[in-house]
Amino acid sequence: MNNSHIYSHISDNELLERFYSTKDNQLLGILLQRYTLLLLGVCMKYLKNEEEAKDGVQQVFLKAITELHKYKVDYVKSWLYMIARNYCLMKLRDRHGKIPKEINDSMPLYAEETDKKAHEQKDNMLGLMEDSLDDLNDEQKTCVTLFYLHKKSYQEITETTGFTLMQVKSHIQNGKRNLKILVEKKLKKA
Question: From CA 29, how far away is CA 90, in angstroms rounded?
């Protein structure tokens, strides 16, 4: 059932155009398959763990499938690279409480986000996230806002809210998961 050899002579842009006109997920799968090793390499470079890197590639694919059904992307390779990089940085932040400076400063940027469509997509997604944030329960909303928007550490959130460290971690983890679910529901309705 794998027809990727049929499309091997077709450029990424042609595959994308065919996907946008037909919405055939098989074309999208063939396109993403081309970048599996690149994305695995990016995730390994950041996460230094093969299983986490494989999970990262799957998360990038899921995000790409969702986003490409809604938005037009011109340069899929650099776009996928940025999704993978951002995913890994968020994983590292979750793991360490902040992004290690040496990783942030030493990584080259392959894609500039000066493109108008990229800004529109980002603004749209931020708007959906902001709307969805209000749908979280108060504890989750508070902890997620303090952690992600105000860049507070777990300890600072504990001191500010009076929650225990375990409660803070739980509210952030559950809030992040629920926020993702809420945003996905709103995207399906759009």
Answer: 25
Residues of the chain with pLDDT under 70: 1-5, 97-120, 122-123, 190
Q: For residues 95 and 176, what is the distance between their CA atoms, to the nearest angstrom?
A: 14
Contact 81, 38 (CB under 8 A): yes
Place of tokens 């998961």: 177
CA atoms of 115 and 123, how far apart (whole Å):
13
Q: Which of 67, 69, 81 shows the shortest CA–CA distance to 121?
A: 67
pLDDT of the residue at 123: 66
pLDDT of residue 190: 66
Classify 48 in phi/psi space as left (phi over 0), alpha (psi -120 to 50) or beta. Answer: left
66 class by beta-carbon count within 10 Å (0-12 exposed, 13-18 middle, 19+ buried)? middle
Instruction: Tell the residue number behind the tokens 């093969």, with chain if given.
Output: 50
| Neighbouring C-alpha atoms within 13 Å toward the C-beta of 127 | 9
Top-level class of domain 1-112 = mainly alpha
Calculate ∠ Cα 13-41-19, nearest 5°.
20
DSSP state of 4: G
| CATH number of the structural domain 113-190 | 1.10.10.10
Domains in the chain: boundaries: 1-112, 113-190
Between CA 10 and CA 190 the distance in angstroms is 31
